[in-house]
Amino acid sequence: MITVLIGSNDARASLAGYPVERAMKRKQLPERPSADWFQQCLGNVVERLRTRTDATIALLSLPVLGQQLDGAAARASQAYSRMIAEVASVKEASYPPLHERQTEELRQADPTPIPYRDPTPAASASVLVRRALLRRSLDTVSRRRGLVLTTDHVHQNSRGAALVAEVIDTWLRTRSV
Fold it and tell me: Taking 70 as the threshold, does the pLDDT of residue 124 lie above it?
């Protein structure tokens, strides 16, 4: 069984202000990220896995970007999750609902609305410094920032990662029945 969790960077690239040109250069992308290209590439991944393995394939929906469910980042991750569901349906892959589960978790937590900020290299370095030098856990970094599932609106803390594991575990149990 193979689980695929990709697309958060594509969803981020759809947001106003995202440094698309810099990302294209850094990741050596042959074209500008778009919804159509994302769906095409994801479909190609499924096809390649199908031709090279006998594995059952699951395409997870995306983690929620940010924690304001009505914000642009969360709406982008929801829109890309819908695209993943479409590809899963067309390619006859499973669709474990991570985005939906994290949305439910955020609704229950009712966190302080903190506007989404895309992680900059400096912000990412700050997390690493706090982790390495100050010996702060990623959960402590999240808590100090008022974030429920992530350390920086994108990367999962242990609570967010536990939901990823829960969704995959639930999917695996339904496959073995």
Answer: no
